Amino acid sequence: MSPAVRSSPYIGDSTPSPYGGRESANLGDILERVLDRGVVIAGDIKVNLLDIELLTIKLRLLIASVETAREMGIDWWEHDPWLTGDNQELAKENATLRRRLATLEETLAVRAEERDAASVGRRSTQAVEHGR
Amino acid sequence: MVADQGVYVYAITREGGEEPDGLVGVAGEPVRCLVHRGLAAFLTTVSLEEFGEERLRRSMEDLGWLEETARTHHRVVEAVARMRPTAPVRLITVYSGEEQVRELLATRYHEFDSVLSRVAGRWEWGVKAYTVAGVPEPVPELVLEPQGAAPGTAYLNRRRAALRGREADWRRAAERAQAVHDALMGIAVVGRRHRAQDPQLSGRQEPMVLNGAYLVDEERADEFVRTIEGIAGQGVAVELIGPWAPYSFAALEPDGEAACGGPS
Q1: The whole model's pTM is what?
Q2: What is the pLDDT of residues B79-88, one digit of tens each?
Q3: CA dist B240 → A77, B69, B221, B258 (Å)
Q4: Domains and CATH numbers, chain B
């Protein structure tokens, strides 16, 4: 099994100063914290993020979690039966398709028979005509 | 204060104690400490040209600018947190001047005091768990498919089997994640499950089943880390990130502890 724990460099380091190399912290983890957590102070404030429409597409995609994405309407996966595991929907669709296929096959078979019968009929007519 | 300048606040902490030296803040400007009535705010004077609403609307779309600002903010917060109990402030919180910051420290004193007491001597640890693909179970498609079955049927059966496998992986991982969370809650002072990150943010293909944050006493950090190492594997991959300043546990609520209990 592949290593299950991705330790930060300080784990297991017995020195009490845990912050060496913080600069390498994953940008996604930092953004999640500084944009989404931390004290929000309302009140006599000049500018804060709540005032600013953050929702540019690039940023949306960068910080979107599944839930925020859903709120924003990026929810295509919810309607994709392969991804949602919605087997019932799939089975229903499958059954409908099978029925339609069967009907089509039947219709085609009937038509083919009719065509055969017709061409035989034509041939015999022709033969009769020939024979005249 | 000049009219077109504002004060960018990184963190609120207590008065006294060591001060980080020569910190450079946003826009390359120095960070300083404003003390008022027992509390202290770390801040930088910024130009409202750069940190005004109008300009920020555009800047926030510039990922280069955003990354630099976020990393700088974070670096200041962490530097302060290394030395004092710290309440990190949300990115881009700009006041019109120091007078407003003093007023903030005075009027919200008790709320900050309660937050700082709660986080003192404790660090936040981030724990993320992902599904891992299970051992492939024997797929009975060959048995089930009658000779000469339509290729579409075979395809559907294969997709169903793959789907069942994925669901089983997900269920296993979700149960495991809950067990991990429960075990960590036994060590943490408080913890909370944040919403799972999108793969674009996590950088991993596998779905995330746990995005937890835990406030842990300094002296129990080793125990916390060992616990994670002990329960990793077995259906989930676990990532431990930290320690962080207590970003997830600094919410200002009149009733401090309640702020940490619920889901985010």
Answers
A1: 0.68
A2: 999 999 999 9
A3: 29, 25, 12, 25
A4: 5-120 (no CATH), 123-244 (3.30.70)
